[in-house]
Amino acid sequence: MTEKKIVNGVNVEQLFKSIEAFKKQPELAKFKFRATNQWVGGTHSRATVKDFYGPGQEDTPREATVFDLDEPPVLLGNNLGTNPVEYLLVALSGCLTTSMVAHAAAKGITLRGVESRYEGDIDLRGFMGISPDVKVGYEQIRVYFKIDADISDEQKEELVRMAQKYSPVFNTIANPTAVSVQLDKG
């Protein structure tokens, strides 16, 4: 019986098996993630994530995860949840970290710790329709990583670059992505 090679909590053997499977059958790499949202009241809504499609089948065995979204009082909410633009930073943090850790594991780099900090600047005059010259959304997002590992600063910087290169959330934010929004008449 062979021992599984685990680096940074990542099963490297399974990682490479998945890569090979996706190379041989590219259709298996096509995933569809889903979320639903229901308005509760005021600026409070509740999002749910339960199932997704991939690789080549529906994946439904996990319990639903529920996210409460709300705004702080200064933005007409009651702090009943994290606000959506903060969730965007959370999604970015998880995806960059996962990408970094998995790619470090694939390279055989053992990490003792990874911490990151996220800041985003928004001018709400765009959201509120006060100025057509102000962007609706983040004007800039800054990310700062601390990596604890026995590697050089240059290797740490390479891990940061790899995290950006391979993070789906980073690339969705940083590059234009088609988004379709429509009325569901069903």
Report on the biggest sheet. 3 strands, antiparallel
Q: If you average the pLDDT, what whole number results?
A: 95
* Helical content class: 25-40%
* First-residue to last-residue Cα separation: 53 Å
Strand order of the largest sheet: 3-6-7
The portion of residues forming beta strands comes to 25-35%
Total number of β-strand segments? 10
Instruction: Assign an overall shape.
Output: globular
Low-confidence blocks of residues: none
Strand and helix map with partners:
Layout: E1 6-7, E2 10-11, H1 12-24, E3 32-33, E4 36-41, E5 44-49, E6 52-53, E7 58-59, E8 65-69, H2 84-106, E9 113-122, E10 138-148, H3 153-166, H4 168-174
Antiparallel strand pairs: 1-2, 3-6, 4-5, 5-8, 6-7, 9-10
Helix pairs in contact: 2-3
What is this entry, summarized?
With 186 residues, the protein is α+β, with helices and mostly antiparallel strands. The chain has helices at 12-24, 84-106, 153-166, 168-174; strands spanning 6-7, 10-11, 32-33, 36-41, 44-49, 52-53, 58-59, 65-69, 113-122, 138-148.
